Amino acid sequence: MPGPVAIFIWFLGIMLEVCFVVCSVYRRAFFRYLFLNLYFLISIPTSLGRYYFLKNYGQGSVHYTYFYFYTDALLTLALYVALISLFSYVFGELGVGKYIRLCAVILLGGTALFSYAVVAQSADRLSTQFAYELSQNLYFVGLVLTYILWAAVLKLRETRTRLVQFVLALGLYFSAYAACYALMNLASRYSLIEYFSQAIACFLPLSWLITMARYTEQSRLEPAQLVAVPR
Fold it and tell me: Is 229 part of a structural domain of the chain?
């Protein structure tokens, strides 16, 4: 069972996710950023469910293991869909939305097939290994796509403050989690990484909440002010 600090960070993340959804409703932006809100609406009961299984069955139990890996794959997929929705917003004026969705489905299918091929030899724990491999690979794909999206934001001179901040925060989030996955494969002590991953989980709802509360849909900025781009 995690210590009190880890539990506090865990429930802090849940509260931040709730606050983002409430703020989106209050700012009348829930449906505009529907998939961002859906990600948190999936994450909130998932986190509570994980705490239930952890408290009642323990971290090494089969119940917690299966619930954790399946929900992790579900959350990663939901975040992937949220990322694709940001692609649609950035490229919306170019009329290429259907092509973006088609490429997203193809990329998702390819990632799933690759993940299955990696774990196909581990028949004894195929289901959990596949869920873990799919989550890890989707995080990597999400990281690459987010940086591609950020490059597109700069190239297209996107000025919508909310959209720019959402993309930037998501890029930092994917980068941090990719590092966390790498550390989990290398480190012998899991406890420190557990605190790190919980803190990362708080970053995304906190940054998106600040953006949603601070800026309106009419707010504009110049991305070149954030990153120096050679001309």
Answer: no
